[in-house]
Amino acid sequence: MIESTHRPSKVVVDLSAIEYNVKQELARLNDEQVLFAVVKANAYGHGAIKVAQAAEKAGATGFCVSNLDEALELREAGITLPILVLSYVSPNYIDLAISQSISLTAPSLEWLKQVEETLAEKPMMNPLSVHLKIDTGMGRIGLRDEDEMVQSKELFVLSNYMTLDGIFTHFSSADTKDTTYFELQQQRFTRAMDIFSDLEIRYIHTSNSATALWHDAWNSNLIRFGDALYGLNPSGKALDLPYELKPALSLTTELIHVKQVSAGEKIGYGATYTAEKEEWIGTLPIGYADGLIRQFQGYKVIIDGEYAEIVGRVCMDQCMIRLPKRYDVGTPVTIFGKNGTLENTLDDAAEFIGTINYEIVCGLTDRLPRYYLNERINN
Ligand SMILES: *Cc1c(COP(=O)(O)O)cnc(C)c1O
Fold this sequence. Notes:
It is found in: Cell membrane. By secondary structure, the chain is an alpha/beta fold.
């Protein structure tokens, strides 16, 4: 989808907030612990390259992405720090990973065997850097069976083609008050680590943002810092943050049309909204094709420091709001972020449509241009 720059709707990312959030977390870590910025899915919709550069300036020493293309995007932008792909990469593409110094996640013993076989036919290549994933209860990817862990360890010990640079797991419930399931996963990871205890492995990591924030980065010398990097609370509103985070993203637009309608007039597809009295109605150039999905009907945006409700159905490219009074075309409107003394947080928005802040930012489509504040060109 082409970026629409001749339209006032835009995502604005404050890179100084990204830097601030990285520094806040780094201040809590010890000398052995490093922070990798998780910039998958175009940095949760914020823009991978700019966020990665800001995170690096603030002290991040590596990156996590979800697939090989996202890793290659960072390399093409000139980023040379370590990159770990967190999800499955087909053994067909390991040449590319090796040549670009990208570490891959081993999701299974079977994958390790396939990679070993593939690389045995190409003895001239450098070894592949691998982080072994242990599935302690997320149920997504990783080794679950202790026998397979023992076999994979033997494979690494003998392999000339792969180096075991990391071993890791992912918690499914590090962001809830009830820690029962978190503790079960901890026990399983501890057992898995016993199997590998006689190997020297550079990175041991269990910590997404939530584990870093609320479980003291348990058993991690590498933190996979995602949601909190963007200033968002991974628990939504369930748990308080242990330190301040600054949200980096705002979504803003402008009025493109203003009119007064009389009582009884209808607005939008399906004529679902009826004006109760004489009302000022504004039109915004943003809709569900931008990620402002139809569930946002009834949500309040902010204009001139006052709330204005989205009335009628959200269209593909536009939506209508009920204005507190007449405003000129071109008046700025904030959908997410601060305006006057008011703020629409991503958690308010997520609560409104019944999802999590992650899904809203990832759902902002490529049609919205990304603009950056406080970019530091030099150190
Ligand atoms: C996405 C992801 C993270 C980052 O999670 P946050 O909750 O955004 O910090 C960490 N680890 C893995 C394996 C992931 O897939």
